[in-house]
Amino acid sequence: MTDLFAGPDTPASHPIDEPLYGAAALAVRDQLREPTDLEVAIRVAQQLLDSDSVPALQEALRLLLRAHGAEPTTRPAAVEPPALRCPAAHPEDPSPCGGPVAVTVLDAHNGGANGCEHHAARLLASLEGGRVAPLPHAPEGSAIRVFKTSGTLRPFAWLAPEGGERR
């Protein structure tokens, strides 16, 4: 059988028919050896060291623990996804939405966010020159309620220990 990939100065690419002994066998022994679990875990951890992916880092740690025979005995509790909230809710505001998305809060440059009445009032209180407009499907008077409620709130009400209401 002709080896089409072998050149005049390169060895044939097909396997050698005779076994290797002596120095030739020692030279290729480490290349043919299956890596240990620890070596694989270390290589994966080194590759993921600069990763921002939490699942990838968890997998690297799990491999390292398994390689040392110290795999956790209990499975970690499933992390619940964050509750869906309206676009007007500030990421640092822990309060839940107070009903359906009903209004749009606009800033001084006409940038807007739709929101429930609760978060829209908190957002409006935190804006300078902001205004509120009802959405077409909004309950009657929702924009007025948001405007009036925002007048009773401090800016960034979720940071105030007493709930953000003005006294």
Shape: rod-shaped
Number of helices: 5
Q: Which residues form runs of ≥5 with pLDDT under 50? A: none
Strand content: 5-15%
Distance between the termini: 94 Å
Mean model confidence by pLDDT: 78
**Largest beta sheet: what is the strand line-up?**
2-1-3
Biggest β-sheet description: 3 strands, antiparallel
Percent range of helical residues: 25-40%
Structural class: mainly alpha
Strand segment tally: 3
Q: How many domains, in number, for the residues?
A: 2
- Report the C-alpha radius of gyration, rounded: 32 Å
The string of secondary-structure elements, in order, is HHHEEHEH
Structure description:
The structure is a single chain. With 167 residues, this protein is mainly alpha-helical. It folds into two domains: 16-79, no CATH class; 82-167, no CATH class. The chain is 33% helix and 7% strand. It has five helices and three strands. It has a three-stranded antiparallel β-sheet with strand order 2-1-3, with helices on one face. A hairpin with a 5-residue loop joins strand 1 (103-106) and strand 2. Helix 2 (37-48) packs antiparallel against helix 3 (54-67) and helix 4 packs across helix 5 (142-150). The longest helix has 14 residues, at 54-67. The N and C termini lie far apart (94 Å). The mean pLDDT is 78.
